[in-house]
Amino acid sequence: MTLDQHARQHLDDLQAHNLSRRLRSAETPLLNFASNDYLGFSTHPQLAAAAQRVLQKPRLGSGASRLICGHGPEHLQLEEALAAFKGTEAALTFSTGYAAAVGTIPALMGKNDVVVLDKLVHASLIDGARLSGATLRVYPHHHLDYLERLLQRHQGQNLLIVTESVFSMDGDTAPLHEIVALKEKYGAWLMVDEAHATGLYGKRRQGWIEVQAVSDQVEIQMGTLSKALGSAGGYITGSRSLIDLLINRARSLIFSTAPPPAISAASLAALELIQSPEGEKRVNQLWDHLRYFSKCLGRSTPPASPICPILLGSEAKALAAAETLHQKGFWVPAIRHPTVARGQARLRVTLSATHTTEQIDQLTHELRRLG
Ligand SMILES: *Cc1c(COP(=O)(O)O)cnc(C)c1O
């Protein structure tokens, strides 16, 4: 069989199961209800201006890994600002959130260790855990009794619990308070991915960890600069020793070119913006929209996050619904296996502070027509 025949066979199989994917241009003027740019920061002039200042030097690429070539002042300033924002000793940035996950877990865990994950954690965390060579144990989503049994069974080994704070495809929040109590009881470490929480929760907008008041008990805080912060890149915050160990052992940092300094400058601008009155205004706007949307859909519970899944079950149904919405001018993705379990396909609606009430009305109208 040629490689192309092999590829074709795989693709036909995906197609037959309604699991085929393709890239689409985002240039068609659709109303975007798919993005994680929750505050509209990606198009904020302050981010673009910060990047342009660096580009005028002029400097685009970083040239090599930071360990080979050193870094610019932008990387350092961003890391200092991140640590201050999150209230930790130190921070380290990676070129993406994905790189932060697959670099960090294997830097800390190995063959004789155990990584315990919530069933619904993001692919980057699963990949990181697998790469580490540690034993993987999975507990059903939010199932604290099950988690405790796993911790009990492996007590005495190096144990790392890995969870998201806001789950990327379900939009619900983790009971961090309870998880912290368990990890303290059994001497485990805790890694929390705040990809969908950073910038959106808490008085200081640090994330869900701030709301749950567990910052001092979470050894490894992870996040991305590419969602609410509107820029690009991943980060880890924690103790100085954690960050120093990652600098020595995280392969996605050591063997990868440093992010372009202009991007780090834009991320720093985003961090300043999120802590400013304008940041606060945008976050309030987003939560107003979310309460409104929730009410329009007739939901009785208040929204937990800007991620509003509409469960449809079959992959075919989700695809058809997304296609209908596309034809009507809305961009709402159908989320299918392997992003979610088989038979758990859904539309994933995300709102942004930059939507208008009219746009939300239009979407609700179409969703109702879809039943
Ligand atoms: C998006 C996402 C990541 C990856 O971040 P990128 O910067 O897009 O690579 C990691 N974890 C979760 C939960 C995410 O949703």
Quick tags:
binds pyridoxal-5'-phosphate, 371 residues, 44% helix, globular, alpha/beta
Structure in words:
The chain has 371 residues and is α/β, with parallel strands linked by helices. The protein has helices spanning 3-16, 45-55, 66-69, 73-86, 97-108, 123-132, 144-153, 176-186, 208-212, 240-249, 251-254, 261-274, 277-296, 315-327, 357-369; strands spanning 31-32, 90-94, 114-118, 135-139, 159-164, 189-193, 220-224, 234-238, 307-313, 330-331, 334-335, 345-350. Helix 4 (73-86) packs parallel to helix 12 and helix 5 runs parallel beside helix 6. It binds pyridoxal-5'-phosphate (PLP). Pyridoxal-5'-phosphate (PLP) is lined by residues 96-98, 101, 122, 124, 164, 168, 193, 195-196, 224, 226, 234. Pyridoxal-5'-phosphate binds next to helix 5.
Helix vs. strand class: alpha/beta
Order of strands, main sheet, comes to 2-8-7-6-5-3-4
Described by strand count, sense and barrel closure, the largest sheet is: 7 strands, mixed
Q: How many strand units?
A: 12
Contiguous runs where pLDDT drops below 50 for at least 5 residues: none
Strand percentage, roughly?
A: 5-15%
Task: Compute the separation of the termini in Å.
Answer: 45 Å
